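dumping this here so i dont lose it
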């Protein structure tokens, strides 16, 4: 699954950029070395809880691990400087709230969103009520159903107007260019909010 591969590559790049061993990251994130290796190789799905623990160990916001291709050390340093650890603490809570708000803005029932995202309605209800430890593949499916990336879905807060604007932009820009512009706008918005929080 390409999303898992991307998360794995980003974890490796973040770990190596900070000169950390797998043993150190596994210890500080309270997961086994074999689990970390599975994540780095993109072999296993992982939960948001595990991503947050990895982000804490790597001292970055959990949202950057699954949505950026990080190959340039300077870009990586800027991202690490902009997104501070304290802003990822309520990540899952915000994602759940955003899913509910987006669904209501698009006037979708839980059943319709479940069908559109290929997530069971029981699982979607659990996610919306914050009862489930959400796996990344489910979040990617839900984000895809809304036509957005995981970073857009996990934005720190979205007013109804911002959500409508984001949906409107993603629907009116076809191809990669529109998607890129939409992501860039939202990334700038998120960094701005983070910088002033």
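and the seq i came up w/
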């Amino acid at each position: 699954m390409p999303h898992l591969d991307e998360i794995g590559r980003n974890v490796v790049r973040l770990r190596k950029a900070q000169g950390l061993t797998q043993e150190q990251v596994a210890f500080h994130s309270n997961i086994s070395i074999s689990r970390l290796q599975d994540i780095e190789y993109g072999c296993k799905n992982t939960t948001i809880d595990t991503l947050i623990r990895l982000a804490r160990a790597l001292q970055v916001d959990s949202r950057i691990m699954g949505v950026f291709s990080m190959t340039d050390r300077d870009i990586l340093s800027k991202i690490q400087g902009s997104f501070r650890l304290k802003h990822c603490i309520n990540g899952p809570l915000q994602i759940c709230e955003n899913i509910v708000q987006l669904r209501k803005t698009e006037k979708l029932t839980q059943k319709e969103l479940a069908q559109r995202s290929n997530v069971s309605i029981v699982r979607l209800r659990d996610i919306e009520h914050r009862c489930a430890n959400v796996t990344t593949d489910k979040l990617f499916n839900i984000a895809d159903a809304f036509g957005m990336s995981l970073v857009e879905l996990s934005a720190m807060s979205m007013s109804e107007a911002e959500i409508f604007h984001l949906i409107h932009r993603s629907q009116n820009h076809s191809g990669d260019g529109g998607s890129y512009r939409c992501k860039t706008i939202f990334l700038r918005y998120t960094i701005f909010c983070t910088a002033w929080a």
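The domain at 2-88 is CATH 1.10.260.40 (434 Repressor (Amino-terminal Domain)).
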